[in-house]
Amino acid sequence: MSIVDNVNELFWKQSRVNGVTHHPATRDAKITFQVPHVIPTNGRAPIPLDIACRSKRDQGRVYLKAWSEVDKFSVVLREADEPGCDFMAFKVLNEEVLVQLEKDLVDYGVEVEQVPAEELKDCGRRVRFTVPSGHAFELFADKLYTGKWGLASVNPEAWPRGLRGMKAVRFDHCLFYGPELAATYDIFVNILGFDLAEQVLDPEGTRVAQFLTVSMKEHDVAFIHHEEKGKFHHASFYLESWEGVLRAADLIRKCCSRPHSGRTGVPAAPAPDPVRSGAR
Ligand SMILES: [Fe+2]
Question: Which of 225, 229, 222 is nearest to 202 (CA)?
């Protein structure tokens, strides 16, 4: 069984598409991003999210979403030798905004690459670029709307019944490590419309960590200074409570590491030798 298969075993497998036409939310901001998606390469089985919905495997990829997310997927996994992140993408308001942002990036001197529609299943065309920290990002305007998993679009219940595992509510943010934070900041803030939510300065006043937001969240993406380019630290998923975080930690230990005894972290005793124990 491959690592991707292993990950799939951890996820809730039911998929539901309700066929509701997608009308993207509009906001007052000049530039609006919606749910980002991220592709962690899972050289080691990552997180038993119990993401509620998945599509069939496509080109060795697995498409996943958390239950409250309305587009078809927010996370794509592919098999790889090393763990990491291929890119993080942000959804923009519409094609017009996508065209404008692409032009703004090019005018700023950023090299952009076109990724055709359907390169990711049910996703529109994407514009890819790499920031000075060495990380690849993408913008896109269209993705198939499938609605929240397990909830009707009319008179919905508060949450879907039958959730299992981590019960992740939604994707939240990514943290990347790399150099050239100031130049990376310029692109996110001056071109893409992000705001600086928090920062960490060293004694000389140089920014060594920057937390950037384009929404109501504390941050959507963060960078911490590191000499090596393009390092991926983590992707985060929002859970309902601290109890949910503890439960998620238990599931990670249960599914992704050696057997342990409950929450003590003590490795479970090996199974008794059936011959020496007299079992046979
Ligand atoms: Fe984080």
Answer: 225
According to DSSP, the residues that pair with 178 across neighbouring strands are 225
Q: Which residue has the higher pLDDT, 50 or 75?
A: 75
Q: Distance, CA 132 to ligand 1 centroid (Å)? A: 21
Ligand 1 centroid to residue 269 C-alpha, Å: 34
- Is 0.70 topped by the overall pTM? yes
Would you call 278 exposed, middle or buried from its count of C-beta atoms within 10 A (0-12, 13-18, 19+)?
exposed
What is the whole-number distance in angstroms between the Cα of residue 172 and the centre of ligand 1?
Answer: 8
Q: Is the pLDDT of residue 280 over 90?
A: no
What confidence tens digit (pLDDT) does each residue in 235-273 have? Answer: 999 999 999 999 999 888 887 655 555 565 555 555 454
**What is the distance in A from the centroid of ligand 1 to the CA of 107?**
32
Q: How far is the CA of 233 from the centre of ligand 1 (A)?
A: 9
54: buried, middle or exposed (CB in 10 Å: 19+, 13-18, 0-12)? Answer: buried
Query: pLDDT by residue (tens digit) across 145-161?
Result: 999 988 988 999 998 98
Q: State the distance from the centre of ligand 1 to the C-alpha of 219, rounded, in angstroms.
A: 9
How many Å lie between the centroid of ligand 1 and the Cα of residue 182?
20
